[in-house]
């Protein structure tokens, strides 16, 4: 049962700045969980730049998942396409290994804001799946929490890097979300499952999670 | 940022530095000739591919291209 999440963030930096900052995202004060980053493929096709990076991160498995996953690090493959002419940067990340226990796919599309040509919009989608029988609801709750945290890290960390690289730009950022879904940080599995059930009842469609940077 | 291979980080830094300069000063301005960083990339890749093997990384999984392929996830249809 695949769960889908999406959210949109606005960076008050130009697309060119965001595209440059993307390659320098790590390390930043919000990325302590990122252990390594390597470019393992890079090629120009037409006018576009195709890149593949391999990231290793510390594995944040919830207590109930430890029985299934005992690796301390998780490997992530990040594919990206940079189109400098159309000013579109697409990134697509997936974990490798343990995909039956939990598969997390995230796609982010960075484009020029229609509101302000000096801003950049990041549309983020995530798909979370598990093939472990009976875990669907817990996975959904964990996935939502993880997605929210990752949003914070993405926006907070990326913004830190952009501000360092381009100190003369405006540093504040705004968020546009269709809905707000909050989960508390230390909820138990039971609470999480209940919340997930409520969520599932209240929303048949995609779940919109809000990104709250600099809040933990 | 560190490389997955401890001994590759220096090569990685040299390549990253070249790439970032090229990306900002050439690529974003329409110049797609990336030969300038190719020598750095080559030695870095030799190092990192070896390190990936040492870390028992499933190279087939890594080499698979998903973005832009039929395997890419699509958002569910909006039923509003």
TrEMBL record, chain A:
Pfam families: PRELI. Residues 2-170 form the PRELI/MSF1 domain. One of its GO terms (cellular component) is mitochondrial intermembrane space. This is Protein preli-like. It comes from Zootermopsis nevadensis.
From TrEMBL, chain B:
It holds the Pfam family UPF0203. The keyword Chaperone does not apply. One of its GO terms (biological process) is phospholipid translocation. Coiled coil: none annotated. One of its GO terms (cellular component) is nucleus. It catalyses: a 1,2-diacyl-sn-glycero-3-phosphate(in) = a 1,2-diacyl-sn-glycero-3-phosphate(out). Keywords: Disulfide bond. It comes from the Eukaryota. GO terms for molecular function: phosphatidic acid transfer activity. The keyword Disulfide bond applies. Belongs to the TRIAP1/MDM35 family. This is TP53-regulated inhibitor of apoptosis 1. It comes from Zootermopsis nevadensis (Dampwood termite).
């Amino acid at each position: 049962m695949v769960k889908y999440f999406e959210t949109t963030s606005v960076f008050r930096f130009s697309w060119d700045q965001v595209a440059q900052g993307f390659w320098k995202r790590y390390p930043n004060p919000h990325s302590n969980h990122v252990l390594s980053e390597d470019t393992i493929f890079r090629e120009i096709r037409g006018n576009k730049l195709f890149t593949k990076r391999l990231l290793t991160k510390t594995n944040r498995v919830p207590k109930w998942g430890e029985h299934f996953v005992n690796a301390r690090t998780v490997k992530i493959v990040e594919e990206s396409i940079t189109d400098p002419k159309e000013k579109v940067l697409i990134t697509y990340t997936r974990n490798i290994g343990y995909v039956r226990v939990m598969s997390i796919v995230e796609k982010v599309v960075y484009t020029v804001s229609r509101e302000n040509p000096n801003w950049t919009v990041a549309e983020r989608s995530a798909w979370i799946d598990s093939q472990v029988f009976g875990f669907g609801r817990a996975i959904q709750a964990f996935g939502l929490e993880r997605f929210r945290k990752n949003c914070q890290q993405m926006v907070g960390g990326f913004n830190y890097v952009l501000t360092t690289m381009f100190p003369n730009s405006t540093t504040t950022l705004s968020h546009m979300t269709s809905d707000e879904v909050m989960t508390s940080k230390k909820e138990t599995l039971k609470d999480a499952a209940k919340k997930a059930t409520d969520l599932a009842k209240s929303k048949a469609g995609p779940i919109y999670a809000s990104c709250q940077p600099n809040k933990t | 940022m560190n490389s997955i291979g401890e001994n590759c980080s220096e090569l990685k830094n040299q390549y990253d530095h070249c790439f970032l300069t090229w990306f900002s000063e050439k690529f974003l301005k329409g110049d797609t000739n990336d030969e300038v960083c190719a020598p750095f990339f080559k030695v870095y890749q030799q190092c990192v591919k070896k390190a990936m093997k040492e870390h028992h990384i499933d190279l087939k999984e890594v080499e698979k291209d998903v973005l832009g392929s039929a395997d890419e996830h699509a958002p569910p249809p909006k039923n509003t």
